[in-house]
Specification:
The protein is an alpha+beta fold and about 425 residues long. It has 9 helices and 23 strands. The N and C termini lie far apart (about 50 Å).
Length: about 425
């Protein structure tokens, strides 16, 4: 028999007032997947580590699934409580992917809270264990300032590349390409990751706040969720900033809904997801018109695609089949990828790639790592932030610059002491 997994359900009323999963994330981090804000919080926090693996290559998704299927057999886990957190690299042979199994898994869905622990013996007091974590966590940032600089490309150079991409599109070489840029921040002291995920989770309750192996963010885009036979994907493409003025904000939203450019960009992204899921699903529901998703700093055109699985394909395999979508690469995919490699001049790492979790039965959730950053050093004083823009016919360098700044603002604001 493998290592024992002890599961304890916890009465939320026995925890501290206004309990949140983020309360137990230390300054040096944890494994985090949270949505809903404090009022409707749902998600997972992994603490400690039992085992991990790092993968690369085109087979990284299938190898991750095979590794986790094998490792999960090493645990005596009758309720299937354990999950593996996963963060994949964007390009097959550039960087690596991580799969990590935590020693403690804190799970919350509304008022339901549980703690699963891999241990030789049951924890004597789960409540005391959590209280100790809360008391030892520093609850405020230790840095006071961050200085920002351009990342791989200077901003004016990136805008030139956007104009070049528009020229390729208008010449008929491709329909859409996503060009990303980065900025690098240097703090005067260590960035408190527990504090950072708290800020993100509170400010972006409609997103999925994540922290896996140094990559942290709040993504609005669910690449794929599998729960039993049901799968779902939220597709976002087409973006406009928010305004503090309610009238202006509504006008911006109406313009987004009526924009031929943004509607075309959105249609490419929806089609790329629906075509993949159609190979595995029956009763695929693809709404004819997008809805509007309002976040704290931007508004998106959004389409929620749902279906029922016709086979037993796990969430990890679905994520691998979907990546990269037109929302983060472009269309046609191969042409867009070639233009990205030529013009972007950026190592995306795990930006714009799947991040999330999977259980041993193949269920799980994988978002696209957007609105995110990567901690660059062990001292946690440097962080690189990423933002990408979908370039289509009619795009302009100035409008894409404004969109990228709006997208970067989610992380920059969360990092402000």
């Amino acid at each position: 028999m493998g290592q024992q997994v002890f599961v304890c359900e916890i009465d939320i009323d026995s925890l501290w007032p206004e309990f949140s999963l983020t309360d137990v994330v230390s300054p040096t981090g944890a494994l985090v997947w949270i949505t809903g804000g404090r009022e409707h919080e749902k998600g997972l926090v992994g603490l400690g580590e039992v085992t991990r693996t790092h993968l690369t290559g085109r087979e990284r998704f299938s190898r991750a699934q095979r590794w986790w299927a094998r490792e999960s057999q090493q645990f005596d886990d009758p309720t299937g409580a354990l999950v593996a957190f996963m963060s994949f690299n964007y390009e097959p042979d550039r960087g690596d992917s991580a799969v990590i199994v935590p020693q403690h898994l804190l799970r919350r869905d509304g008022n339901f809270v549980s703690l699963a622990t891999v241990s030789a013996a049951a924890a004597t007091s789960p409540l005391q264990f959590l209280e100790n974590l809360r008391q030892h966590r520093e609850t405020h940032s230790r840095h006071t300032t961050i200085e920002w600089r351009d990342g791989a490309l200077a901003l004016d150079r990136w805008q030139e590349q956007v104009s070049r991409a528009v020229g390729r599109i208008e010449a008929g070489a491709l329909d859409k390409v996503v060009l990303a840029r980065s900025i690098v921040g240097t703090a005067d002291a260590a960035i408190d990751l527990g504090w950072l995920v708290t800020q993100l989770a509170q400010a972006q309750p409609s997103c999925w706040t994540f922290l896996v192996d140094g990559w942290v963010g709040a993504t609005p885009e669910m690449l794929v969720r599998r729960h039993g036979p049901t799968v779902a994907s939220r597709v976002l493409a087409g973006t406009v900033k928010r305004s503090a003025d309610e009238f202006i904000d509504g006008d911006l939203a109406n313009r987004l809904r009526e924009s031929d450019k943004d509607l075309a960009e959105h249609e490419y992204a929806v089609r790329s997801v629906a075509d993949v899921l159609a190979a595995h699903c029956t009763d695929l529901d693809v709404p004819a018109e997008p809805s509007l998703l309002r976040l704290a700093n931007v508004q998106h055109l959004a389409t929620d695609v749902t279906g029922e699985l016709a086979d037993d394909v796990p969430a990890v395999a679905l994520a691998g089949s979907l990546h990269p979508t037109a929302a983060v690469c472009g269309t046609p995919t191969e042409r867009a990828a070639a233009v990205i490699n030529e013009l972007e001049q950026l190592d995306r790492g795990r930006y714009a790639a799947p991040v999330g979790w999977s259980d041993a039965h193949g269920d799980g959730e994988f978002g696209i790592a957007l609105r995110c950053g990567h901690v660059l050093d062990e001292q946690q004083t440097q962080i690189e932030l990423f933002a990408g823009c979908g370039i289509v016919a009619g795009s302009t360098a100035e409008s894409e610059r404004a969109e990228s700044e709006a997208k970067l603002q989610a992380m920059r604001k969360a990092l402000t002491p």
